[in-house]
Amino acid sequence: MDMNNTLKLLDGKEAEALFARMYGPEDTAAQKERYKEVVRGFEKEFGEKDILLFSSPGRTEISGNHTDHNHGKVLAGSINLDCVGAAARNMSNEVRIVSVTFDQKFTIDLNDLSPSAKKAGTMDLVKGLLKGFRESGYEVGGFDAYITSNVISSAGVSSSAAFEMLICSMVNVLFNDGRINTVAYAHIGKYAENHYWDKASGLLDQMACAVGGLITIDFFEPADPKVEKIEFDFSSQDYSLIIVQTGRGHADLSADYSAVPNEMKKVAEFFGKEVCSQISEKDVIDNLQAVRAYAGDRSVLRALHFFEENKRVEAEVQALKENRFQDFLENITASGNSSWKWLQNCYTTSNYQEQGITISLALTELFIAEKGVGACRVHGGGFAGVIMALLPNELADEYIRYIEKATGKGNAYRMMIRPYGAVCVSHLI
């Protein structure tokens, strides 16, 4: 569609209704202007063309903390922070991208999709995505894209996966008639990170960003995970999801992160298996003394967390399906307690006096106890960084003021679960 008509569509009732669902009614005017700026930015960079608009959200981990790497279960959701872009075919053999947020401009020759020696950065990532499409038997061609993002970096909401799924949506619509499903998007994003960034990532982040809404994933068969979209209107509960950045740790946390999956796998190894999804909690308890001697006590605790967390994900999904929101919140609290006590990923023992996550959780628990409502838990990998709180809308601003007094101004982000994943916005309005 030409740019003038695209701008007119953005002022229409259909766009307003869509943006209300995607971002919340109070944010529709700002989002209209944001999309218009993308259209104008595209025209300035690439000239006047028929364009399509795209959006891909960040994601939040609702429950299933440190379960995916041992082929367990996860509950995740897409959020109202997103990457937005305008794209158009350019009838050449080049992909030209302008990323406003990261002040990047680069061109990729489709005849040369080999990664750089560093295997890092946005250009390598896009090359990996394009190569992934080709390796999967899909069409790829030259296109221009102008992209902006408000997905927070280093907050556990997957800014890179949001960008990846945006590019996937563009390639799907521009060159493959929209026939590629979101599971294929996720595998292509995983391929790019594995081979072009040398990052041993799974499918969780990409799936949550691509599918949209609330989804549960069972990674028992990691090459073909079972994904189910949960039809639940989170906004109907009048609850806000708040992410709090508690501060980056000063210690190198690589060993802490690696130890979690490795220790769980050590317990599975005792039984001749590779991951905890291949054994049962009963197996561990029935052989507890021998497993403790073989794998160590923290390994056993982390394995027990894995089994119980899988049960919690199942219980949360059932509670949402049956509209038992308070039961859902109780399981979120239980998930957080298990991460803190059993999984033990709320601070690093290499620097035990630095406990930003546990301080923030303690303060949040005091707030929730006083108000009598809400839930909180560590968010993502842990050891340093981010927590999540779920609170009624009328308490959200008060909580943000309260927690930012301890963590610093600008460290708490109020979000909502949006019902759309990576989409062509032009096709929805």
Global outline:
globular
Overall helicity: 40-55%
What is the CA-based Rg, rounded? Answer: 22 Å
Strand count, sense and barrel status of the largest sheet are: 8 strands, mixed
Estimate the strand proportion.
Answer: 15-25%
Mean pLDDT level: 92
Q: Which stretches are poorly predicted, pLDDT < 50 over at least 5 residues?
A: none
Order of secondary-structure elements: HHHEEEEHEHHHEEEHHHHHHEEHEEH
Cα separation of the termini: 12 Å
Structural class: alpha+beta
Number of strands: 12
Helix count, DSSP H or I runs of 4 or more residues: 15
GO biological process, one term: galactose metabolic process
GO molecular function, one term: galactokinase activity
Keywords: ATP-binding, Kinase, Nucleotide-binding, Transferase
Protein name: Galactokinase
Could you please describe the fold and organization of this structure?
- With 429 residues, the chain is α+β, with helices and mostly antiparallel strands.
- Helix content is 47%, strand content 19%.
- It has 15 helices and twelve strands.
- It has helices at residues 3-10, 13-23, 28-46, 121-135, 159-175, 182-196, 204-211, 254-270, 281-286, 288-295, 297-321, 325-343, 356-371, 393-407, 425-428, and strands at 52-63, 73-89, 94-99, 104-109, 143-149, 214-218, 226-230, 239-245, 375-378, 386-392, 412-415, 423-424.
- Strands 1, 2, 3, 4, 5, 6, 7 and 12 form an eight-stranded mixed β-sheet that branches. Strands 9-10-8-11 form a four-stranded antiparallel β-sheet.
- Strand 9 (375-378) and strand 10 form a beta hairpin.
- The longest helix has 25 residues, at 297-321.
- The relative contact order is 0.16.
- The model has no long low-confidence stretch (mean pLDDT 92).
